[in-house]
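Table S5 (text form). Sequence records supplied for joint modeling of the two-component complex.
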Amino acid sequence: MYVAVKGGEKAIANAHALLAKRGRGGADAPRIDYVQMRDQMGVLVARVMAEGSLYDPDLAAKALLQAQGDVLEAVTLLRSYRTTLPRFGVTIAVDTAGLPSERRVSATFKDIPGGQQLGATFDYTHRLLAEELETPEVPTPDAPEAEPMPRVTDLLGVDGLIERDRPAEGWTDPDPGDLTREPTVFPMSRAERLQALSRGDEGFLLSLGYSTQRGFGNTHPFVGEVRVGEVEVEFDAPEIGYAVPIGRIELTECQMVNQFVGSADQAPQFTRGYGLVFGRAERKAMSMSLVDRALRREEFDERAVSPAQDEEFVIAHSDNVQAAGFVEHLKLPHYVDFQAELGLIRKLRREFQERQAAAVPSPASSNDRDSSTGYSSNSNSNSNPIEEHV
Amino acid sequence: MSAPHIVYNEGYLDEQTKRVIRRALLKGVAIPGFQVPFASREVPMPRGWGTGGVQVTAAVIGASDTLKVIDQGADDTTNAVSIRAFFEKVAGARSTTRTDEATIIQTRHRIPETPLAEKQILVYQVPIPEPLRFLEPRETETRRLHALEEYGLMYVKLYEDIARYGHIAKTYDYPVLVNGRYVMAPSPIPSFDNPKMHQSPALQLFGAGREKRIYVIPPFTDVESLGFEDFPFEPQRFDQPCEICGSVGVYLDEVIIDDRGNAMFVCSDTDHCERTATASVRDETTEVSA
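The corresponding structure-token record, covering 680 residues in total, follows.
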């Protein structure tokens, strides 16, 4: 009876024991080692790192195992750990033009300095389910490529065909805001927005990016370039006085070239959308660059007509840790609020029935009952009393 | 490179973050009912499950504090148990279920029946801090409305409720005007609890983790539930007493007891119910023995 609503510590402990058992599977099969996870599920690990905002393949692999493969749960684990780490400072902006690219493709030019390089990609694989996975030999390249690979957008920039990625002069690289250490207040700077997008949910950004292609905020995108590779991270430690390399991280970068703008006193130029994500995450980087460009509508005086152009809508709902938590909190007890609603709906129904009963003796006047009681039945106002369950 | 060793600070949050939260709280005290943005951190429970309340509690709790955690008025609902266990683990705090013994009470959706006293802190878990959110979803707009003290939208909504239903159809998270200036969401407490906020001797702190906002009602502050002269605010009331302890004038949970829709009404505040029931049993025993 009343005890049924009591949860209690024992029930929680038992539930967690059961969860662990379900995650273990058969005792005769070995547990998956985190190293296997890290190396054989690299794309998944990269997603957890990106959305968890922490570059640590070992911890991401462990989080995935602990979460039994629930990506958002693993992301939450990583975020909760990340937030306890001290922040030493800001690294020097990584130089993606200098990164020895493992993969680099451009859809805007057939040949580009440094060449196109397919690298490790699912593109052009036939999506046929394999009986068994094979690892064919990878031939060593005839001559190691030492040719530099300038960004395609930089090549376009030479002639001013595309907007600059920084002001022409008098520009010093400002410290970016930090989404995780400062309050989010709208409107955001583009740097903050890019941070939010980079850790945003891949599925959400994919759908938003897709929506811009289907007419909800079209930006006429071309993939200027997608590249994947490892880049050196340098940190300017004040005690030392010069930049020290602190490690290498794998990144996916997408430079989207978008529709041009111009005016009476400015020649037409292509515009940019930008995506940068940890690990091998091409789909995410491309989606991010589409959404980034759509969100820059104010800079280009574009009319806001679609969800992808709406900063508050996109940024406030892109974080899957927040979204998952709030949706799932609906399973927490809401007895008190529901009781309050029950009380009101019973009262309203009682009053309705009383009015009905009073109206029965004079059926002739039943047609104009609505207006006689002052209750509008055709109002399209959305003041539904049960509108917000929180 | 070896895997990093995982260590957590006392109270989970690092000291820098605690200072950030305390600064936001102080600003909140200075401007009652104003939503102060803060850099809400992740805590090891999901967003929407009390992460704002947990951060506020973590920032104010100390070694000499006694913590009570309730969810829906009860100390033993699963999430309350989980949050209490968290603080026992990371802050080494003493905990209690007695409202009068607690120095800090973290709550979701209720204010305890036992009147609060000076030097007590009530920490609310807040899902949606913006009272105007469902009237105007954009924060850039609502911020301006608050700044201009432009609350016409809210009064129109309350008026429309009366026009459609004959009542203000807001039964929880009923908007209040704090210190005669800011309209504030009291979190989804039932409107039954609203009058307890007015001139309360306790410090009332509100933490919205997912929405990254903190706001405060300092002790002895005017808190007025919105209404009209001819349709004043009316808190919900129950006609029946609690079927366990017999209390009247308290908030009740309806517990369905069979498959024919029969129900019993019992206190939502488990601490109040237990203490009242024990006290009446004791009275009866004294009477019998005398």
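Note: Chain A touches chain B through 65 residues (CB under 8 Å).
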